[in-house]
Amino acid sequence: MDADTRTTILIDDDVAPERAVPAAMQEILAIDKRMARTTRKLEAEFANVETKIHRFPRGLRGIDDGDGGRYIAPSVVAIGPYHHGAARLQEMEEVKLAAAYHLCRSSGHSTAKVYERVRSVAGAARGCYDAGDPSVEAVGEADFAAMMFLDGCFLLQYMVDGDDAAPVLRNRMALSTGPSIQKDIFLLENQIPWLVLEALAEIISVDVLRFVQDMGAKFLSGKAMAKSENGRRRLPWPWRCTGGRASKPADRSRGGEQHYKPAHLLGLLRFTQVGSMPEDMVKYKAFPLSLSISAVELAEIGVVPTPSTEPWLGYMRVRKGLFLFGELSLSPVFLNDVTACWLVNMAALEESTAGANRESDGFVVSSYLSVLAMLMDSDDDVQQLRAKRVLLSTFSNKQALRVFKGLAQHLRFGGRYFATLDEIDSYKRHRAGRIAIHKVLYSSFKAMTIATLFSIVGVLVGIFKTLLDNKH
């Protein structure tokens, strides 16, 4: 056996003493082992990417520049370990204790029984967070289980809270901090694993799905509901927590349906908004030459933004109208401080789980926000979208423009974004003649409008001067 063969055997068997392997080969062997070990680690982490509780993606953190972290950090209540212990959030820790007390009493079960059920899944729940995150490492096993118990009970109590709730809870959870809590519980970094809520569901009856759907209705997107038609995704249960276990996440084995099990409340919120979108729209991919088109250009070619009536957020479709006009049908959206945070965090969730679904890039909300931002170049563009009822907002035109343009700088263009631009390009190709006529009429109308305006002003000035002379 020659020396080269002997060296190869020793390396492959990985049992030879170091002196039998040349130094250069030892370095290669060490690097190869690190490569293999790291690859296995990353693959294992990515296999569970859809069930993880993620930190806000670094690539999107610029969205929050100058806003004091309002899209990322909770303002009144910490859910989970990432923001647990923040000084400004300690007041709600007392409210959590009271919420858990009332929830356990109303369930008819002892605190010990409810806590033990949560503690039994606490280990699996801990695995849903980044084990190396300092906020997670700092929490011991017992404290982590208590955190999951109190946070889970707090969330469910907030969902069932009503006029018959304890006055102190109604004041702290509904009246004084209601909107802030609504914002906080759907932040990406402020989640607890779904399996904790599942564990509580075996004991406590709360209609979680209905609560999240009602929250999602604030977008004014037609109250998107998960449907069970062929080729659409649906929840594997009518998720009213009534004591029965939720069914396992299934494949597409029954009638083409795809069952969906959320990782957390934010995932369920996104599902209620886009989960009923037909698969042919989700899978659609296109790569047009243009990367954007302004609202002014759309007006010149006769394409008018109109509100869609489809029951999901993120609908975008170009339609041919009569004679010279077309329309860009868009899901209407209501924008305020709460819904803006939800939209940003749904986009952040898409960024965090990108690539997990081989059938779609997953950037549905991101694509929708990118198209809206593309249409807004000025305050006038925002006002036009308001006039068309595509955008409804408590923000001023300047504030809304700032929000969308701030988003556009950081969001990734998804397949639905390119698909919409492709439809606009197709409209331009197939209606070239009509577009040419429309551009002439459009320019003439603008010029005529200006000329008419000056004429009216001239007439009014003349009338005013005559009246003034008569008065004198």
Task: Give a brief rundown of this model.
The protein is mainly alpha-helical and 472 residues long.
Description of the structure:
The protein has helices spanning 3-13, 23-47, 91-107, 111-119, 122-126, 134-137, 141-160, 167-175, 178-184, 194-201, 208-216, 265-274, 279-283, 295-300, 337-352, 364-374, 379-387, 397-408, 415-430, 432-471; strands spanning 206-207, 233-234, 240-241, 258-259, 303-307, 316-320, 326-330, 333-335, 391-393. With 472 residues, the chain is mainly alpha-helical. Among the domains are: 3-47, no CATH class; 58-275, no CATH class. It has a 3-stranded mixed beta sheet with strand order 5-7-6. A two-stranded antiparallel ribbon has the order 1-3. Strand 6 and strand 7 form a beta hairpin. Helix 4 (111-119) packs across helix 7 and helix 15 packs across helix 16 (364-374). The protein starts with a helix and ends with a helix. The model is unreliable at 1-16 and 222-257 (pLDDT under 50). Keywords: Membrane, Transmembrane, Transmembrane helix. InterPro entries: DUF247_pln. The chain crosses the membrane at residues 447-468. It holds the Pfam family DUF247.
Low-confidence region ranges: 1-16, 222-257
Count of DSSP-assigned helices: 20
> Topology as H/E string?
HHHHHHHHHHEHEEEHHHEEEEHHHEHHH
Distance between the ends: 124 Å
The number of E-state strands comes to: 9
Strand order of the largest sheet: 5-7-6
Average pLDDT rating: 80
Proportion of helical residues = 40-55%
